[in-house]
Structure formats: C-alpha cells, structure tokens
Design a protein that fits this description.
Helix content of chain B: 25-40%
Mean pLDDT of chain B: 91
Shape of chain A: globular
Structural class of chain B: alpha+beta
Radius of gyration of chain B: 12 Å
Helix content of chain A: 25-40%
Strand content of chain A: 15-25%
Number of strands of chain B: 4
Largest sheet of chain A: 7 strands, mixed
Number of helices of chain B: 2
Largest interface: A-B, 16 and 15 residues
Low-confidence stretches of chain A: none
Distance between the termini of chain A: 72 Å
Largest sheet of chain B: 4 strands, mixed
Low-confidence stretches of chain B: none
Order of helices and strands of chain B: EEEHEH
Shape of chain B: globular
Strand order of the largest sheet of chain A: 1-2-3-4-5-7-6
Oligomer: heterodimer
Structural class of chain A: alpha/beta
Chain lengths: 343, 96
C-alpha cells in the first residue's frame, strides 16, 4: 500500500479542546471511551483531519484508535513508535499497553509482549520481552523462602490497628508472610510514608517481608476504564488483570500458596474484590497456574466501629484526634501528630 | 563499558529495526525479527560484533528487527549504545 503523508502531533490534555470532538468520535468508532487520566495525546493528522490517536498516562498507553478508512497504512506502528520515543524523552522506559484480544497481534509488531489475557475482553502488554521474567527472578533469588508462604496486598493509607491485627494474625499462621504495599501516589499519604509506617508498625515481626508494590501490582488508578462501557464489567476486568498477574507470575516466584484479606462487610467494592479473588485466584478454569487459597480474616472493631483507613482519614479531616488515636498503632500516631495539626 | 541508562534508536519501519538498551548485569541480547527463522543467527552475530567493537560488557539489548540489512543493524546498535553512555567515553575510533 502506498505511503500517505501523515503528520504526528503531541497535544497536552489541557490544550485538547480544538481536537476533542474529533478524538472522541475516532474513539467511539473503535468502541472506546475517552479515558480521564490521559496526560497527552499523540494524534495523526492527514488532510487537516485527525485519522488516528493514542493517549499516554504516565507509563501506560491507552485509547489507541485508527479511523476505519485509514487502516492498512501501518499508521498504528508509526503512532506507537512516536509514543515510545516521546515516553523515552520523558524518562518513561517501562511501558504498558491495554488492547483488545483482536488487536494483540498489531501491537506485538510494535515491540509489545503480552502479560495477561482476560478471556474475551482485553490483553495487557509490556514493551519488553523480559520485564516480568526479570522481576520474578529478582523476587525468587532474594526473597523466596522455604516452608509455607502467604501474601497480603494493602494500600495502608495510613497504617491502622486493623492492618496490624491482620498482619499479626497471619504471621502467626505461616512460616513467611510477603506483604505488598501498593505504590500508588494518588493516595492521601505518599507511598514512602505509607511504606515507612507499615515498616515501623511491624518491625518486631521477623517473618514478614515487606515489598513495595511496583508496575506489576496494578492499582485501580491506572486501569483503563475507557475500555468498557459497563461499570460493573470495568470493575471485574480491573480485578481480573491484577489478580492474574499475581497468580501467574508473582505467587509462583515466591512460592505463595495463600492470600489473606481482611473482610469488609460495609464496603461493596472490597466485598466484590474478595469475590473476584475467589474466581481468579482459586478456580482452575481461570488460569493455567496453580490455584491460590484465599483466606478472609474478620476485621477488628473498636467501640463497635470497624477499623478502616478511610475512617481514619475521615476523622483526621474532622479533627477528631482522640478517636483517631484509638484506631492507629503508636508508630502511625507519632507520625500523625508530627505532620497533622492535631489538637 | 557498561550500559548506564536506557536509550532507543531506530524505527519499526520495514527494512529497519528498533534497538533498546538498558542497564543490566552481564550482556544479554534479545532479538525478535520478521525473518527470525532465516536470519536470526546472523542478526545475532552482527549485534554481538558491534557490541564487542564498542567494548560493551554489561547491558540488556532488545532488538525488534523488521528485515534490516547488516549495516543498518550495526548503525542502529551503535547509535543506541552511544546515546546510553557519557559523551566523554565515546570511542570514536571504533565507530567505523
């Protein structure tokens, strides 16, 4: 097919108004929605019209669409190449991309390799053939332990007595506990603070290994909600991607056979997550990797109030420090009085 | 010499290749090619020779080949390596 003269352009989300309607209609032709988290769009212009676009959100490429009339000109490859170069300039070297199962092959030609396939829905890819492999071998070389190992994944925003209780209980039950603290810097407390508070709070438990979450522990914030128009489906696929990454790669590297969660009867989101865990971690049909047992631990309560990090944040906002004091361990409390104007 | 930072060279156009280099312990070369069956070993040989000429001992070298000829491969590998090291260290005499 002959080459056509296409120009590429980077548009910051702040200056997008001129192109927004064109981008939106392009996306809708591809069955996609505009993702709210995108920082920059790369657009391909031919004859003053936007014929293809791709968005970049930190290190995640999303919303890639080519106008149906312009498919077959290899525009996707050029567009992705442009995005990769742009990301490298911004010092983002490790890139991820979400696409549909049908389009996986196109992106394989652009140097992306599949990580997770959620059947009939989407594929998560990364721009290196050895990314997850290297991370797993790093984990097993440094942290794989004999005996039974379990895992907990938490945000700890901030670390409360509830988290402490969960960790302490599980640490008693198993030989080794791998604790993953999510590194999502859109939480109220920074990743560093959350990590430090967890570390300080459980310093005396010597069979707990703390890991800082990374690109392979996907947080909600980075998930491509634009993909699916049905909110319920978005949640399900989001959880599936996250859980399959855990089951197919991380659990195997560390010999983890059980994953513990705190129950949260009050919160429908966490409740749904716990249900999804049962499906994606324990069922044989969901993955070829070994199933992981999911154990739910009841949360503890203080004064009939279940302890949760969101409750602590709420009380902090309302300056009700005496109530906060009852919900957090000493280490978190001493951080809070230093950094928050508590009376 | 070690690859000290990530760098990129080349394109994904037909008859070209994209070379990515990253810091790594030891030298590791990963090649994907449209003509892997026919020329995979030869491409590997050209990449290794180019790296040896530049005295690269450590680095992860990822090659996405689209059917490039030898001198293209050599030029792209050299370019990616040069972008990843400090300019004072560039061994100009070895770039022939």
């Amino acid at each position: 097919m002959q080459d056509i003269n296409i120009q590429f352009k980077i548009i910051s989300i702040n200056n997008i108004s001129r192109y927004i309607s064109e981008i939106e209609s392009l996306l809708s032709l591809a069955g996609l929605l505009l993702d709210k988290n995108i920082e920059n769009f790369i657009i391909a212009i031919f004859d003053k019209k936007v014929v293809a676009c791709g968005g970049i959100d930190c290190h995640i490429i999303k919303c890639v669409a080519v106008h149906p009339h312009f498919r077959g000109y290899n525009i996707t490859v050029k567009l992705v190449e442009y995005i990769i170069n742009y990301a490298y300039e911004k010092k983002q070297f490790h890139l991820f991309l979400y696409t549909t199962v049908e389009n996986e092959k196109i992106f394989q030609k652009c140097g992306f390799y599949p990580l997770i396939n959620v059947p009939n829905t989407l594929v998560l890819m990364e721009n290196t053939p050895v990314g997850i492999k290297k991370y797993c071998s790093y984990l097993s070389q440094n942290y794989k332990k004999p005996g039974n190992s379990a895992a907990i994944v938490m945000n700890a925003n901030p670390f409360t007595l509830g988290h402490y209780h969960l960790i302490e209980q599980v640490a008693k039950d198993v030989d080794w506990l791998h604790l993953f603290v999510l590194s999502e810097d859109c939480s109220v407390f920074s990743t560093k603070t959350r990590y430090e508070l967890v570390r300080a709070g459980i310093a005396h438990l010597n069979n707990v290994i703390i890991h800082l979450g990374n690109d392979y522990l996907i947080s909600r914030a980075t998930f491509p909600a634009y993909f699916l128009k049905n909110n319920k489906l978005i949640d399900q696929v989001c959880m599936a991607t996250d859980l399959l990454l855990f089951r197919n790669y991380i659990a195997g590297a560390l010999n983890i056979t059980r994953r513990y969660v705190g129950s949260e009867p009050a919160c429908p989101v966490t409740c749904a997550y716990n249900e999804a865990m049962k499906k994606w971690l324990t069922e044989y049909d969901s993955s070829q990797s070994l199933p992981i047992e999911v154990v739910e631990i009841p949360r503890i309560a203080v004064d009939d109030q279940i302890i949760s990090a969101s409750k602590v944040r709420e009380l902090l906002l309302q300056n009700r420090s005496d109530e906060v004091r009852k919900l957090v361990p000493d280490s978190t409390w001493s951080y809070l009085i230093k950094h928050y104007p508590i009376k | 010499m070690k690859i000290e930072r990530n760098a990129l060279a080349g394109t994904l156009e037909s008859s070209d290749l994209l070379v990515k280099v990253e810091p790594n312990e030891g030298l590791e070369i990963l090649i994907t090619s449209d003509v892997m069956k026919q020329f995979g070993r030869h491409i590997h040989k050209v990449v290794v020779e180019t790296l040896n000429d530049l005295d690269i001992t450590d680095g992860l070298i990822i090659v996405e080949d689209k059917g490039a000829l030898d001198y293209v491969i050599k030029a792209r590998v050299q370019c990616a390596v040069l972008r990843s090291i400090r300019s004072a260290e560039i061994p100009l005499e070895k770039l022939i």
